[in-house]
Design brief:
The structure holds 2 protein chains of 2 kinds.
Chain A lengths: L24 H26 L3 E2 L13 E2 L21 H29 L1 H6 L8 H12 L14 H23 L3 H6 L2 H4 L4 H40 L5 H4 L1
Antiparallel strand pairs in A: 1-2
Helix pairs in contact in A: 1-2, 1-8, 5-8
Chain B lengths: L2 H27 L12 H15 L25 H9 L6 E6 L5 E4 H6 L3 E8 L5 E10 H7 L8 E6 L5 E5 H4 L5 E6 L2 E2 L9 E3 L12 E7 L12 H4 L9
Parallel strand pairs in B: 1-10
Antiparallel strand pairs in B: 1-2, 3-4, 4-7, 5-6, 5-10, 7-8, 7-9
Classes of the chains: A mainly alpha, B alpha+beta.
Chain lengths: 253, 249
């Protein structure tokens, strides 16, 4: 009888926790929209980079000035000295169109996620370190245990551990805002409206260099994230992020 | 799905769709839709253009100190300009003309001497190429708004189309940029004449947009209320080659 009140389509095998999905619908939808837009930003960003694979510091930089660093890859413009005897095809047009359209999707998705996260307590409940980890001693003990691969307690398996929580907070509240800011700082129109957005970064070329570096950190996060998901059980984790439940009803029996 | 959920979803979808339609109409009336809004990337372009027109219509591009002028500016090479250009160059561009036509009361053309005699503005601004490089230079020229005044631009004008001496190279800007005080019909650079490599004798500098909107060797301005009749109707040669019409990014 207890099962019968769990929902209109009561499945006898369902456990008591099945009513609450592992990830809420908003988290699942915004996760995949972010995935899609991030991959589009990454591909188009690499294409844009190829037209001038040199980075500078300050306001200005071009092939006549010394770069801060550069990549020894072929470029899509003949004016860039690369040491290669050929020039890649110019893909900057659609890359830029796609980059900015995807940026809008990413920013819109991010705003939706932020509003949801603050109002429903998602950040407080799922991402802020759990109450025992909120002191420096508790935090270091937790991280220590985590780094020694101590097995997590049973009740922790359905939530994030402290290192995951800190990483997600860093990505959501530091890296994403930084990559958006440094991206906007490259826009001549935004620079005219909010000059401080550019000058505080050290100049327009500094903004471009920082945009590249922060993007690199986000790619590093993506790689580690996918690796961790694979180690933890790729199918069940990805299923949880799609349907909300870690395992199909058949497997739960 | 329950009936209540279905009805709520339906109501939200209807409200969303009609809200979008109303927003699109309002945006069109207020000139917030770029000419390349059709197609795969139209939504992103429209959001960018509309947002920046609402937030940055009157903002001024940053101006720099003399000490920040790039010692080694760079300019992309252009295709050979041909014999006609060489003849004009041999005559120190004394016969260069900037024609102005379209929705104006007094269509006319300007020689370089006439443009140089008009009150000029000097500004040290940044030029950023869409490829990623940039430089800072001092530019001297006549504000485009001054020329639009002289020819008596009609009130229904919405865009200025500008063409290079180089065939097939043309761009357009809306009136917000055309009337902007820093949009210059430029004839001088870093204290001297504007070098040919940097667009001399005449270049339209639009400092709040990327370098490709600052067309070199401009020879003709056409004031219009619609871009549909120009080229493929996408606003300029850039969208026809796959690049965004609005380059304020």
């Amino acid at each position: 009888m207890a099962d019968a009140v769990a929902g209109p389509t009561s499945v006898p095998a369902r456990s008591a926790t099945a009513g609450r999905p592992r990830h809420s619908a908003v988290v699942r939808v915004t996760h995949w929209l972010t995935t899609l837009s991030f991959l589009a930003l990454l591909v188009s960003g690499v294409e844009i980079l190829i037209s001038h694979p040199r980075f500078y510091w300050g306001e200005t930089g071009n092939v006549n000035t010394r770069p801060l660093f550069q990549f020894n890859i072929p470029a899509s413009r003949s004016t860039v000295p690369t040491g290669y005897g050929y020039v890649l095809p110019d893909q900057n047009g659609w890359s830029r169109y796609l980059h900015f359209q995807s940026a809008w999707v990413a920013v819109g998705t991010g705003l939706l996620y932020l509003v949801f996260g603050f109002f429903t307590g998602h950040f407080r409940r799922n991402l802020l370190p759990a109450p025992p980890d909120r002191s420096l001693r508790g935090l270091s003990a937790s991280i220590n245990g985590r780094l020694r691969f101590r097995r997590p307690a049973e009740e922790e398996a359905g939530s994030y551990n402290v290192l995951q929580r800190l990483t997600y907070l860093l990505v959501i509240f530091v890296l994403f805002p930084l990559v958006i800011w440094t991206g906007l700082a490259m826009s001549p129109a935004i620079a005219s409206a909010i000059p401080a957005a550019v000058t505080s970064l050290g100049g327009q070329q500094s903004a471009r260099t920082l945009h590249f570096c922060v993007s690199g950190l986000l790619v590093l996060f993506l790689l580690v994230h996918v690796l961790m998901v694979s180690l933890a059980g790729f199918r069940s984790r990805v299923r949880a992020m799609i349907t909300g439940n870690p395992a199909a009803p058949m497997e739960r029996r | 799905m329950t009936r209540r959920k279905l009805i709520t979803t339906g109501l939200i979808a209807t409200a969303g769709a009609s809200g979008l339609a109303a927003a699109a109409k309002l945006a069109e009336r207020n000139g917030l839709i770029p000419p390349d809004a059709g197609g795969l990337y139209g939504a992103g372009e429209t959001l960018t253009y509309a947002a920046q027109r609402l937030l940055t219509r009157h903002s001024l591009a940053r101006e720099f100190s003399r000490g920040q002028i790039s010692q080694q500016p760079f300019a992309n090479a252009v295709a050979p300009l041909g014999e006609g250009f060489q003849r004009l160059q041999a005559g120190a561009f004394a016969d260069w003309r900037l024609g102005v036509d379209g929705m104006v009361a007094r269509p006319r053309s300007f020689s370089l001497a006439e443009l140089s005699s008009l009150p000029s503005r000097t500004q040290i601004t940044h030029l950023a190429c869409e490829e990623g490089w940039s430089y800072i230079a001092e530019w001297r020229g006549v504000p485009l708004s001054r020329i639009l005044d002289l020819v008596g631009t009609l009130p229904q004008a919405r865009y200025v189309v500008y063409r290079s001496f180089q065939p097939g190279w043309w761009e357009s800007i809306d009136m917000a940029d055309a009337l902007h005080p820093q949009t210059l019909v430029t004839h001088g650079m870093n204290g001297g004449e504007l070098p040919v490599a940097f667009g001399g004798p005449l270049r339209l500098r639009v400092p709040r947009q990327l370098g490709y909107k600052s067309v070199k060797y401009i020879a003709r301005l056409t004031i219009t209320d619609s871009l549909k009749r120009f080229g493929k109707g996408l606003g300029s040669a850039s969208p026809e080659a796959g690049y965004a019409w609005y380059a304020g990014i």
